[in-house]
Amino acid sequence: MSLVVFEYKGFTCLASSSWDKTIKIQNIENQKLLWTFIGHSDGVFDIVAFKHKGFTCFTSTGYDRTIKIWNTENKQFLCTLKGHTAPVSSLVVFEYKRAICLASGSWDKTIKIWTE
């Protein structure tokens, strides 16, 4: 399980990943569940929030060997990144040459760099 805190439209949110294949977003101030994102076919390991073109997005990594990207502004799934042959256990989002990049680490003993 992983936790990440991010700002969304003026309030602070907490995102949590789970072995139940979901990512749950809740308002920290009142602890109310705001959304549940469903998309992984197995447990979710890591989540990372980031800003992209003014929108808050987050990524999730899973035991299903995928990385998923989500948009919190419209609560929609954006895409799936595939390439690892074992569960993806860690992820970092960074900017390089003005592009958003991701680096993922997997149980397949590889690190992959993804660019937009």
Can you walk me through this structure?
The chain is mainly beta and 116 residues long. The chain has strands at residues 3-8, 11-17, 22-27, 33-38, 44-52, 55-62, 66-71, 76-82, 88-96, 99-106, 111-115. A four-stranded antiparallel β-sheet has the order 1-2-3-4, with no helix packed on it. It has a four-stranded antiparallel β-sheet with strand order 5-6-7-8, with no helix packed on it.
Ordered list of secondary-structure elements with their pairings:
Blueprint: E1 3-8, E2 11-17, E3 22-27, E4 33-38, E5 44-52, E6 55-62, E7 66-71, E8 76-82, E9 88-96, E10 99-106, E11 111-115
Antiparallel strand pairs: 1-2, 2-3, 3-4, 5-6, 6-7, 7-8, 9-10, 10-11
SSE string: EEEEEEEEEEE
Helix content: under 10%
Mean pLDDT: 92
Form type: globular
Unreliable stretches, pLDDT < 50, 5 or more residues?
none
Strand content: over 45%
Q: Which strand order spans the largest sheet, edge to edge or round the barrel? A: 1-2-3-4
* Class by SSE composition: mainly beta
Question: What's the N-to-C terminus distance?
Answer: 26 Å
Largest sheet: 4 strands, antiparallel
Brief account:
The chain is mostly beta strands. The chain has no helices and eleven strands.
Descriptive keywords:
11 strands; 4-stranded antiparallel β-sheet; globular; mainly beta; 116 residues; 66% strand
